[in-house]
Amino acid sequence: MKLILGGRQQGKLELVKAEYALKPEEVCDGALCPLDRIPQARAVNHLHRLVRRLMEAGKDPAEWVEQACLQNPEIIWITDEIGCGIVPVDPLEREWRETTGRICCNLAQRSDRVERVFCGIPTVLKG
């Protein structure tokens, strides 16, 4: 498993596609693609949006992501960093950020490789 994170529009998806020779159909968009397709994908973009989507559907995002990892231990998760900046007043926004952060911590701990991408340049944090 791999975790790729960084700010919005920093080149994460492009880097993953090039680094792992992924075709567009091998990447799921966590915000849009059918949930049953995600565990079979080689990579999932927008993990943070997937977490929000699962929360809004009343599902446990941590458990859901855990099951996806068990089904596909080679999956590549791509996520925006959403925990920096001003703490939102809205409780749902705070819960979403906290939940996403905890899931990313868990994924980072279990991943064989973790990279942070800034301006299209990867920095290896683990692996």
The N- to C-terminal Cα distance equals 11 Å
Going by helix content, strand content and strand pairing, the class is: alpha/beta
Radius of gyration: 14 Å
Principal-axis shape equals: globular
Q: Total number of β-strand segments?
A: 6
Give helix and strand order, one letter per element, not per position.
Answer: EHEEHHEHEE
Please report which band the strand proportion falls in: under 5%, 5-15%, 15-25%, 25-35%, 35-45% or over 45%.
15-25%
Mean pLDDT: 96
Which strands sit side by side, in order, in the main sheet?
2-3-4-1-5-6
Segments where pLDDT lies below 50 for 5+ residues? none
What count of helical segments does DSSP give? 4
Please summarize the sheet with the most strands.
6 strands, mixed
Helix fraction, binned, reads 25-40%
What does this 3D model show about the protein?
It is built from 4 helices and 6 strands. The protein has helices at 12-19, 47-56, 61-71, 91-110; strands at residues 2-6, 27-29, 43-45, 76-80, 113-118, 121-126. A 6-stranded mixed sheet has the order 2-3-4-1-5-6, sandwiched between helices. Helix 2 packs across helix 4 (91-110). The chain is globular. The model has no long low-confidence stretch (mean pLDDT 96).
Summarize the structure.
The chain is an alpha/beta fold. It has helices at residues 12-19, 47-56, 61-71, 91-110, and strands at residues 2-6, 27-29, 43-45, 76-80, 113-118, 121-126. Strand 5 and strand 6 (121-126) form a beta hairpin.
Topology:
Layout: E1 2-6, H1 12-19, E2 27-29, E3 43-45, H2 47-56, H3 61-71, E4 76-80, H4 91-110, E5 113-118, E6 121-126
Parallel strand pairs: 1-4, 1-5, 2-3, 3-4
Antiparallel strand pairs: 5-6
